[in-house]
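Hi F.,

I've been meaning to write this up properly since the lab meeting, where we talked about keeping a consistent format for the predictions we share between groups. The idea is simple: the sequence comes first, exactly as it goes in, then the structure tokens exactly as they come out, then a line or two of notes. No screenshots and no reformatting. I'm using this chain as the first example so we have something concrete to point to.
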Amino acid sequence: MQKLITNYSVGQISNFPEISMETLIEHSWHNPAKIKYDVLRNQYLSTGVLIVALHVLVASLYLSHKDDISFLKTKHLVEVNFIKPEDPPKKETPPPPPPKPKVEKVKETLPPKETAIKTAPVESNVPANVPVIQENISVAKASSPLAVATSVVTPVPPTNSQPEEVTEAVGYAGYMQNPPPEYPASALRMSREGKVLLHVHVLANGHVDQAEIKQSSGFKLLDEAAEKTVKNWTFTPGKRGKTPIDSWVNVPIEFKLSK
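Output, unedited:
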């Protein structure tokens, strides 16, 4: 019908008999070119709508699983660092001073006085035949040296009062096959890090009797994971001399993520 209308000029169309809208619609449905155009247009529209819907669906799935993808990427970058406690300095007690020896005072004895012999001076006017008279003056010697009172001092053996040396218990991750604590999944997902300091009571047989949180990491999940693991560890017990004893020891554990 459209082809018929285009073959006429404007003046001719004005004299053309009136055609109803129903007749135009009826003739347009019987036009093969029109039908083919409508079919192709509907197919293109359907394909375009489907493509847009798929893009929207993929974008929504990516945004909803973005956190899970980042979690999977960082899951293999977990690093738990354990700090080996420093060995406590050994307490050395100075040995007791040796007893001072007692000095015995010995009185000196005076040496005996020797006999002095005085010779009278010879007068010059004495004749040579007169004998010279010598006078002997004797001094009494001391009969015996003065007696000195002496006392015998018996040395007292030193008593073994030095206390025995005390050593603390030893234990950490990797020591005596002690496993490291697991990084909690929730703390890992939220990138929680921290350092826990535990106060552990170790029995004489090396097993843990009690573990307390002396200094928190700031996150309950990390504190509980460290406490649960250390309670199953085995330690080298503390000793007094060579005898194993019960003792307390501080165990630091650090949870850290790789950058």
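Notes:
Residues 1-14, 115-124, 126-153 have pLDDT under 50 and may be disordered.
The chain is about 30% helix and 15% strand.

If this format works for you, I'll send the rest the same way.

G.
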